[in-house]
Design a protein that fits this description.
Distance between the termini: 27 Å
Structural class: alpha/beta
Largest sheet: 8 strands, mixed
Number of helices: 5
Length: 180
């Protein structure tokens, strides 16, 4: 069955959004000729799962017109969606199971943005791989990459790739320790 993977870009001090919400620090760091794994993500993804804030941002930039199914985890049933997008509120384990049974075996589930959502996936031991793109900037505050978790989770480094722009891409496999 497919892998559940996710990740985001973060400042060196661990923030995904500045205190003002400005994302210029991220956009200014990226070079046009560097692929930070976007092509690989697109190739392997059979479905996206994202939080409502991430969906609003992506849709606001003209995204979400893809044929790839997307699920927005939210309690806001009035959120307007378009394309192949479904609102979801409920048990994330159920959602992952339903998605896995509906996408081709050679495709994976991409948890696309949202610190709270990534944290929930880790808490529920649903996330298999985590990617972190470290952006060479210190923001000094903002929205942290991950929220608090009730237990530690071991990470096994799968890939470490640096780019001339100074961005460093880290990909990890998560290992959950059985309780007891």
């Amino acid at each position: 069955m497919g892998t559940v993977f996710g990740g985001m870009a973060a400042s060196l001090d661990g923030y995904i959004r500045s205190e003002t919400g400005d994302l210029s620090w991220l956009n200014n760091a990226m070079a046009k000729d560097e692929d930070y794994g976007f092509e690989e993500t697109t190739r392997r993804t059979g479905a996206y799962v994202m939080g409502a804030n991430t969906y609003r941002e992506v849709a606001g930039m003209g995204g979400m017109g893809s044929a790839v199914p997307s699920y927005v985890v939210t309690h806001d049933r009035s959120l307007a969606v378009r394309g192949n997008t479904t609102l979801f509120s409920g048990d994330l384990r159920e959602l992952v199971g339903d998605i896995k049974s509906s996408i081709p075996d050679n495709k994976d589930i991409c948890v696309f943005g949202g610190a709270q959502l990534l944290t929930q996936f880790i808490e529920l031991e649903l996330l298999d791989e985590l990617g972190v793109s470290i952006i060479p900037v210190v923001l000094g505050g903002g929205v942290p990459f991950l929220g608090r978790t009730s237990q530690s989770t071991k990470l096994e480094l799968l890939e470490c790739r640096s780019f001339p722009s100074g961005i460093v891409l880290l990909n990890y496999r998560l290992t959950y320790t059985p309780a007891g």
